[in-house]
Amino acid sequence: MASISPYSKRFISYIRRNQIRRLISSGVRIDGRTPDQLREVSITTNVVNTADGSAEALLGKTRVVAGVKVGLGQPFPDAPDEGVLIVNAEILPHASPYSEIGPPDETAIELARVVDRGIRHSGFVDFKKLAIDQNKVYVLWVDLYVLNDDGNLVDAANLAALAALRSTMLPSAVKDETGVKLDRNNKTALPSDLSKAPIAVSIGKIDNRLIVDPNFEEELSLDGRITVTIAQDSIVSIQKTMGYFTEQELGQAVDLAYSVRDKFKDILLKSLV
């Protein structure tokens, strides 16, 4: 759980916030959606020619680009026979009125952390096949760039990251007298299993109502927010970024996440055909 809410520095007018809350109490949202309705989703792969894998995800007006770069490095001490995953996120200064120039803030750090955790614990990428020898492994650098923030960055960034990894081509590792090098003229697909794709679903709470895919204004009105990441039929991570949920609300949020997961996964699979 984050010690500081990523949304603590953002605000919305009192009148607008009350309007959103009044509508939610009657089962209607500010943009006309029902509580369990996603915005339009689209995913496009291979959008960056210089990356080893890339994708763009659009969730409503929220727009995130993911790029994967493959390198070489040493394994982590607690996983000597596995490759390394490093996820970074950057919210570009023009992405929203609250974005600033400078190093990643707590929102970007939280975004990268949640996406990383889901991928790392799902089995989507076979990290054991990324070990070259005892001292050298493949390193997957996944960079997330938020081009426009209209809410629910986690779900959009997660979809972009999955599609980018799935499209990644792995350069061959070549050993010679000087060590291990990457042959970028000889590539194979990154070993991944789509059936284990970790799908992140963020649930917002306003009063006692739960909603999926909160837009930007709704995020500024939330009393609570939780992201459930599901791979196959198992929850691989849960991250609460703000507020609180009762035991009953948590159960409802998980059920809602499972139903939305199927919609996200169908869209992901169709984009990768």
From TrEMBL:
Regions crossing the membrane: none
Pfam families hit by this protein: RNase_PH, RNase_PH_C
Compartments in which it is found: Cytoplasm
Superkingdom, natural source: Archaea
Keyword vocabulary terms for this entry: Cytoplasm, Exosome
Domain annotation Exoribonuclease phosphorolytic: ranges: 37-171, 197-259
Gene3D superfamilies, per database record: GHMP Kinase, N-terminal domain
Listed GO MF terms: mRNA 3'-UTR AU-rich region binding
Family: Belongs to the RNase PH family. Rrp42 subfamily.
Subunit structure, interactors included: Component of the archaeal exosome complex. Forms a hexameric ring-like arrangement composed of 3 Rrp41-Rrp42 heterodimers. The hexameric ring associates with a trimer of Rrp4 and/or Csl4 subunits.
Official protein name in the record: Exosome complex component Rrp42
Organism listed in the record: Thermoproteus uzoniensis (strain 768-20)
